[in-house]
Amino acid sequence: MQQQLQEALAAQQSGNLEQAEHLFKQLLNASNGHPVVQAHYASFLCQTRRARQAIPHLKAAVEGLPKEVSLVQQAVHIASQLGEHDLVELWLEQLIGLVGEQAPLLEQLAGTQVACQKEERALATLKKLFRLTPQNPNAQNLKGLALCRLGDDEKGYKCFQKAVELNPGNLAALRNLIIYGKRKKEPLLDEILPQLQRRLNQPGLDGAARMNIGYMLAMYYEKRDPAASFSALEMANRLNRQQYQYSHEETLKQFKLLVDAFDDEFIAAAKPYVMEESGPVFVLGMPRSGTTLIEQILSSHSEVEAEGEIEDLRKCFEKEGQHLFKPVAVDERVSAGKRALQSYLDLVRKRQTATYFTDKMPYNFMLIGLIAALMPNAKIVHCTREPLETCYSIYKQNFSGSHAYSNDQKELGQYFNAYGSLMRMWAERFPDQIYEANYEALIKDSESEISKLLEFCGLELQPACIAFHRNKRAVRTASVAQVRQPLYRDAVKASTPFRAQLATLQAVLDSDEGGF
Fold first, then answer.
1. Residues 47, 59: contact at Cβ < 8 Å?
2. Three-state SS for 500?
3. 152-168 exposure pattern, b = at least 16 Cβ within 10 A, e = fewer
4. Which of 513, 189, 284, 248 is nearest to 406 (CA)?
5. Within a 10 A sphere around the Cβ of 110, how many other Cβ atoms?
6. Listing from the earlier edge strand, what are the strands of the sheet with 280-285?
7. What is the mean pLDDT of residues 151-155?
């Protein structure tokens, strides 16, 4: 085996990648997946820009060589780049077990646990980190974020203040001071943010820092100086847009594939195979349309637990993807759809004991055809908000993850129109299964709208749902500060001071450009 491995490595080093891959695959078969071969093949896949394909090989390698420090370090690095937070946490804990508790590793672990929505575990890790580095601003920021998500806003805010006092250039902590400050007077921000604004015009500042400062200045000046706010926002979005590729044609192609997949033929064929599960409440729609608010209301009910923005349904759908689209026979598509939904339910039910649970991944709107056809007892709550307000709220967010349409006004408007076309298709096919929860209507008459929402979900009205802002559940989206307050009207016409700057977006929305 050693000679064949050397040949494969030599071919890789000489650039003969096709030959190297052939030799690695032969070795994997001949050695019955030896962990050393798995490790080298994982490195090869990363070199050839197939890091995601390397993950199962890394898992096998680390499992077979659990004390190989350099291998575990490599696994942590690759999983971090891919955003595989659960694996990063697992392998970081393994690495700490091998090399001991080191401050950089504990800090990375705490950050990963926050990203994994494991706030309690993050706080335990941070306690260890503070023993090593008591004056660590990043640790203070992570502690503040974990506490705020768990409902302890006051202590969390003090952590953000401490982080900024320790390091006034800590952009993440500054951002959190703005978000969780709920527009309170904050001397630290009043001192530091104007300095950051001046830095934007100085040479030597990289694009990522300029972008992040731009988003912060946009939030800080939104009520103080609308012109300065939007100028910073445009700059930040322009820099953000330069980082990725986006094609609206690809979006349309994807949406049309979904419409074709879950057509009348599929719906008819699915009827004998429908699932009786009635627990899921899918809260969906465009981001920033009120999904977090609706989940907060529903999860205040004694029979409902909140799952938050989980990706389980998307992942289960993608595993069955090749069997769900035409020209595959309709019976096979129905079977694949049922497998995807059953896998989804199995995953969530491992975590959930409540009668009902909310899944508020906004982009589940793409999968309404699958949900409504095969799980007709599930509740689908479509959150809507005035189009320009929705889009402006998206435009001013520095999202993480896949929101590639959001940084250009024309593309944002086109995506919104395509989403509108898709939702109209679903409404025609499933007219009685989709409930519209409108943000503006909820603000105008909250008790009546909350009552109607609960009635659709088959739930009795409970006082806690009206006083939803007192719900101390963990909230992990950009709306966390808002949903812990009573309903307020400030966001209803938030775009009004920027109507002139949003003219391109408004024109696209008015024309229905990008729809189908």
1. no
2. coil
3. ebeebbebbbbbbebbe
4. 248
5. 29
6. 304-306, 356-359, 280-285, 379-384, 434-438
7. 91
Q: What are the φ/ψ torsions at residue 207 (nearest 5 degrees)? A: -60, -40
Residue pair 54/85 in contact by the 8 Å Cβ criterion: no
Taking the mean position of all CA atoms in its chain, how far away is CA 274?
A: 29
- Express each pLDDT in 388-435 by its tens digit: 999 999 999 998 767 999 999 999 999 999 999 999 999 999 999 999
Name residue, tokens 């709220």.
393
Do 20 and 11 meet the contact criterion of CB atoms below 8 Å apart? yes
Taken as a whole, the chain contains a residue count of: 516
In angstroms, the CA 282 to CA 314 distance is 13
- For the cut 90, the answer to whether the pLDDT of residue 516 exceeds it is yes
Q: b vs e for 65-88, b when ≥16 Cβ sit within 10 Å of the residue's Cβ?
A: beebeebbbbbbebbbeeebbebb
pLDDT of residue 177: 93
Kindly state the tokens that stand for 249: 């044609």
Q: Is the dihedral of CA 237, 240, 242, 246 positive or negative?
A: negative
Which is nearest to 387 in space by CA: 376, 398, 397, 395? 395
Burial of 347 (0-12, 13-18, 19+ CB in 10 A): middle
Q: Which of 95, 92, 97, 98 is nearest to 122 (CA)?
A: 92
Q: Indicate the burial class of 462 (C-beta count within 10 angstroms; 0-12, 13-18, 19 or more).
A: middle
Helix H or strand E encompassing 393? helix 387-395
Q: How many whole angstroms separate alpha carbon 216 and alpha carbon 239?
A: 14
The token duo for 341 is: 């939904």
The answer to whether 106 touches 74, Cβ cutoff 8 Å, is no
The radius of gyration computed from the CA coordinates of the chain, to the nearest angstrom, equals: 25
The closest of 466, 472, 500, 498 to 484, measured between CA atoms, is 472
pLDDT single digits (tens) 431-481: 999 999 999 999 999 999 999 999 999 999 999 999 987 766 555 555 555
CB-CB contact of 317 with 367 (8 Å): yes
